[in-house]
User: Fold these one by one.
Assistant:
Number 1:
Amino acid sequence: MSGAVDLSSLKQPPAGAPSAPGGDYAVNETDFETKVLRRSIAVPVVVALYSQRSPGSIELVKLLERLVAEDGDSWVLATVEAESNIRIAQAFGVQGIPTVIAVAGGQPLADFQGAQPESQVRQWLNAVIDAVSGKLEGGEQQPQPAEDPRFTAAESALENGDLAGAEAAYEAIIAAEPGNEEAKSALRQLRFLARAQEIPDSVIATAAADPTDVAAALDAADLEMLNQRPEASFDRLIALIKRTAGDDRTTARTRLLELFELFDPAEPFVIAARRKLAAALY
């Protein structure tokens, strides 16, 4: 999960939506390994994946925040804004929001999907706690690595809405350390989200109405990726590559390769899409 950056500050909830959950339990792709996987060696971690667009999922997270405060140290809560942390949702195979997963010993233990009444959530939590009782290592946690002030500066710029400043900070890291994959990955995600979040939902209909509109197809693919539909995004661009030539085909292929780089190359859907691309080209 390393090599990503929390870009949740770039996305705004719709007007009238409940306020997003507090940041005390927030986890993103950058600190997932430390706050979830490593922490779960000693205590069960309940990961709640929610969306700022879903009032019901926000209410469930607020319920969990209250319950973890009541339960002391018997479990730990980690809240994940799914749309800003696509790879975490994909790693758990999430099919809908909200989804809640208990992680213990570095592995998923139990989960449920959808809003639930407090009594059922409490029953589920008690079952998780009982299941791991006496089976985790406990003891002191591994010390967290010191934060790199350069990344801290970039993340602070993001939190303040300074996209240009964040981009410049990551570019400076890469200039000093050309092999810094964490900075490269963060910069790719930043540029993608900064571009994709400006695309209106209507572009899907525009692309469907005119298959020859290359710009609309590119925007539609970005929007599908933003909405956690990578396979649909890849298929759209591969279809565009098949029916275009010259500069348009090069543009579509370049965009597809950029989107591939948002993921681990070993992801099965990336491997499948690369095979389809090869077939489309040759």
Number 2:
Amino acid sequence: MAYIDLMSVIHKSTTRDYLARVNDPDYPKAKAALLAKQWGFDYWDGDRKICYGGYRYMEGRWEKVARAMVEQYGIKPGDRILDVGCGKGFLLYDFTKVVPDLEIHGIDISEYAIANAKEEVRDRLQLGNATSLPFPDGHFDFVFSITTLHNLHCYDLDKALREIERVGKKDKYICVESYRTEEEKANLLYWQVTCEAFNTPEEWDWWFKHTGYTGDHSLIYFE
């Protein structure tokens, strides 16, 4: 298991006003979180004060992440990959641009996201929960989960990590939110609307060891 940063290029491209988000008069933090946790229109395509404010495909944005994963893990045509928390499938679509003839699969808890997914990959996505992946043991050459697992309570986080380990026969990669300082902790609390697992890097390491997760990971911080 190694720490491999494949997500900073995306995460650090966004400018955030933490205080404005938590104190917004129309969507104060508690209201925004309540709407976001329905995982529907408001979360993906509603007001930016709630969450994404319009989660649309942007040419090349996710391709750089897909390319980094392909190079890191030697992903090749014919490999079978799974995105746990695939959302609208943008990253999976960009995988198919980088490596032709991949067998791609995505799973997400949001019916809205799948219904509004990238048309080219929509038939490869399915509704489901990270805590119970509907695939056989060792089914995938590569399993990844980007900014998803921190949205689970501890009892479900335990199940999800074990499930990712179970269905992956080779490489695995997880990216989750974390904090190293009190300032980063406050920023995370102010900005997030769906996070349930607030863990330091040391606590994430504990979770990985506790569940037998053997893949790689990276952490994103709200600096």
Number 3:
Amino acid sequence: MSMQGRMEEEKEVWILAIESSCDETAAAVIKDGREVLSNVIYSQIELHTVYGGVVPEIASRKHIEKINQVVQAALDQAEKKLTDMSAIAVTYGPGLVGPLLIGVSFAKALSFASGIPLIGVHHIEGHISANYIEHKELQPPFACLVASGGHSHLVVVKDYGEYEVIGRTRDDAAGEAFDKVARAIGLGYPGGPKIDKVSRQGNPDAIHFPRAKVGESTYDFSFSGLKSAVLNYLNGCRMKGEEINQADVAASFQKAVVDVLVEHSMAAVREYGFTKFAIAGGVASNSALREALAEACNKEGIEFYHPSPVLCTDNAAMIGAAGYYEYLKGVRHGYDLNAVPNLRLGE
């Protein structure tokens, strides 16, 4: 039977989803893959700001403290009991190994105690699936740009749960570059939202920073050279005693990142002949990227899909959406499910 047939045959699938791959402890209850009954997120940003980035040990301890409360809050807000759930979906990679282990261990314990099936979900697959929640009409195939703190991927979404990665970062991910440049210009952590905000006061054409091309790999990304160029510019200004315009540096850097992401995305759309393009991940909430992609997609005559900012950052609703389609395919994991910090999409 086709997946569509199974979707029509099986009514009301309830997924309890858990996400703990980095510094958000999150749980959600999702009905039939696209309806969010609850989406509870406990953010640790304030804890890690003082260190200028996520400290894995601190994140893990906080996950242990909060996960029980967050999962219970998700069930309470959805007005559901654990026994109402069809499956428990949990992120098992990629991410930080300590935080991942907290979520996986908790989900395995819940599954073992209740007898409810366990489904391990790929974190990036979750980000892509956030679009299904936001856009109820969206169905594969389509192309998707996943841009976050740890990942920059250009993905062909062939079907639910079926992906081909056609481009990936060779070094720093886009979000990682945002964080490093934000620190360098004195904005602090988290870098993405702060650069986005200050860039609105800057001139994106004030400084020309390089747009890297990766040899024969048309769709691969490289941002470490751009980050180095920004650091060299800042050092040069300091050595010459020149004033640094923080907003201009932020806006010029952001434009360099956005230009590359948009150029590669549209090249893929043209080559593969897609009529639908989506974005996902933390960087997908960047206003300059959204505007540039909306304009580029409009020019190409294709539909542009993007999730709300709350569904771009790490959350469990997206894991529930991805888990639903895995559930329909009959995917079930045993209690030997383990955290896989370097899990690649499609594995």
Number 4:
Amino acid sequence: MELNQLTIKQANEGLKKKEFSSVDLTKACFEQIKKVDDKVKSFISLTENYALDKARKVDEVGNFSNPLSGIPVGIKDIYCTKGIKTTAASKILENYVPPFSATAVEKLEEQGAVMVGKNNLDEFAMGSSTENSGFFPTKNPWDLQRVPGGSSGGSAAAVASDQCFYSLGTDTGCSIRLPAAFCGVTGLKVTYGRVSRYGVMSYASSFDTMGPIARTVEDVALVMKTIAGQDLKDSTTPNIVVPDYSKGLDQEIKGLKIGLPKEYFAEGVDEEMKKVVEQAIKKLESLGAKIVEISLPLTKYAIPTYYILVKSEASTNLERYDGIRYGLSAQANSLMEKYLETRGAGFGPEVKRSIMMGTYTLSAGYYDAYYNKAAQVRTLIKQEFQKAFEQVDCMVTPSTPFTAFKIGEKVDDPLQMYLADILSCPINIAGVPALSVPCGFVKPKDGENEMPVGMQIIGKQFDEQTILRVGHQYQQATDWHKRKPGLK
């Protein structure tokens, strides 16, 4: 196995035994980047000199007690990185260099993580395909004619194609789990507030979560131990002890009650994909889990509720990009003209659509009919999840309603694109954690290559440990997560 194909745990063990160095790992990743990223387009910018310098310093110290020390990582280009360009994949921030780093990035750097570059995404994380990037679309390593999912498509594609060991993504409605499923890797959407949002450019502040994409559940657990926890710069992070997520992974799942929400296996979910997920559920049952059918009837209201609320928050958050303080600044004869010219040139179509939708739903005469009503339904959906978790320890569903679609297939139909989130956005509304793990492959009707299928494991608030344990036990009993795309 090539060095860049190791798991974080394997790489850490090799570093401790001095079988190779952090510089070796970093060079291996850059060799792979130079081989494949012209095709995949998973990075907006690379930090080769910075990474090699960091790797040398880590090797000199020689302390690999933290499993992330010396391990190459990609960072979604919506996390601020001090002195390193951060664009949010938007023309309006094309040349923005932050004077500080996001808390999650700082935590990784303190432990000796080696950043190899900034991953592509849908502009300001608004999208499900990474076609909405202001620069270029990212491609799925399993089939370069297909999308990698979004908005953390660059992060998932980079991990799937072995260009880095793991990446930090964000998940507002699907943005870690959907690309993880489409690209055949493992991704965790954390409980809202479990990881600090400080220094991460906001899409919808009451929905945004930060989390890892990696090759295995075990690797995800290692990353979580470092990035989770209270941050005084983010008041939504509670003072709750961060457990050692790696401990307990090997505990069997015998007797665990796993709920199957029937609405998540209904019309709209690809039949072949559904069969793959059902086989994965049988595997969990063979490991001793007790399968219980449950119902979440308010699921049908999740998409309209979600999109009304997030677009409203987005329209407010995006007011700060005015051409005055930072980013693109158009030349104009008046202040209003400056605003209009800057935002017109700097924002892409999906961001403009979000601003218009959000401004409309927050406007006088429509606030009560749309935003206020959606906020009320959000509360009901949260309560429905809480009630369901009184019956079960966790839930299992497909991660997505279909496998990766072709580039351009849905880009002109926003509603069809939004429906990609139908199985994932209820989890963000409820504020609970969910993990996507690879569970098989399906050959699409419109393609030659088999495409990955993801299984979503949903947990109670701040109970990432249980869903990580279920995911790890599944990966110990299967090999789907070990398959690699035939990209050369």
